[in-house]
Amino acid sequence: MAGQIIKKVKALFQWGKILLPLNQLRYFPPRFVIRDPIAEGVKKAFKMDFETAVIVYNIKNLQELSDQLGETEYVRFISLMKKAFQQVIAQEVNDDLIALHDYYSDGLALFIRVNHNIHSVSDIDSTMKKILRESEKMMFPELGQIKPKFETGYMFIQRKHYSIQESIYKAHQQAVAMAEKRVKTEFNEMVYSISKIISQKDIHILAQPIITLATGEVRAWEMLTRGPKGTTLENPLQLFSVARQTGMLYNLEMIVFEKILKQIIATGCKQEIFINFTPITLGNQRFVRDIKETLQRHDEISPKQMIFEITERDSIEGMDHFIYNIKVLRTLGFRIAIDDTGAGYASLNSISEILPDIIKIDRAVIQDIDKNTVKESLLKGLLLVAKETGSIVVAEGIESKEEESVLARNKVDLAQGYLYARPGVLNRSLEIAMD
């Protein structure tokens, strides 16, 4: 009986619902039409210079649910689940939705676009968890004691592949593998790949200058990570998402730190260096000890030269060692910067908790600020916050002289963006060579 129910439900799923847009449910036959809207949405996102990702919500106890529920109730549950996810996604994802679909799996697949200038791996992770949490709240009161057990995973869709459809399929399979943590699947392959990168320290470091706006001189460099050249993990979003989901993020970030120290020595750089760390790594109990040990191996470098830039938007609440580690790092001479300020509540909340030495204003605020008086007002508000906390301000993502002129008249301290230089390899002349 249970087997028949599963077959009937999966047959129903093959005529799955896809949301484009959210308020219009449409049915498409499998294979011939279903994948086309997803592929077209991904293509459109790529043309607009977005990244794209697939988030998988698989039901771990699907067989158990089918045994406990009758056929009618099981179909009702599927409908309830989709409705709950649709409503939450409408609130949380909004314009970044590409599609929501069953995609031939034991659950749902959410396809979204990702602005790599604004979003981060933590954003994808937190969005994934929030959608599930809010959807479960809507579903559970109606389900009573019978509750689905979800497992989640995500992966970015690669631009460079045989075809868009093939890229989508591969990313979906990898996201499912991440969710299920299956043995002898893509998950183990990705564990192997990221382990190999860490063991061989097979990453390369790029740099982008940070300019003193008043003089045009290079004040500092932000160091940026890339994975092995020519591989899918060269893209930093892909690299750090795999590392995070396989439990190797801390190891990767510590390898990055050591690589940066070696590059400082190799180039003889005496200017300030911005080094990115996620809150998860900064809050690790081993972090301060490992930083000290790494510095002892490179004792010609002073902590006063380095700024630890807190990237991404993980909540620092509940991270027992985070604030403590920040205090210890400051006693050692390191300074602290907060990235993406102005991109959301989390960064503003972090300012009040951390009182950073440097505030980096997000590209979302800077873009077209010369044409938008509201953005300039927001900039002025952030500058007041920085003055209150005694923080230096860096404006990120400057791409035009017009944007620069608005920053200059508001007396912004430092600037960074394509107007000055794209990320490249830092050489001994302290100049950028394109990678």
UniProtKB/TrEMBL annotation:
Q: What span is annotated as the signal peptide, if there is one?
A: none
Which CDD domains does the record associate with it? EAL
Name the InterPro entries on file: Cyclic-di-GMP_PDE-like, EAL_dom, EAL_sf
One Pfam family per UniProt: EAL
Domain of life the protein comes from: Bacteria
The segment(s) forming the EAL domain are 187-435
Q: Which GO terms describe its molecular function?
A: cyclic-guanylate-specific phosphodiesterase activity
- Per its UniProt record, what PROSITE patterns does this chain match? EAL
Protein name per the record: EAL domain-containing protein
Organism classification, top ranks? Bacteria, Bacillati, Bacillota, Bacilli, Bacillales
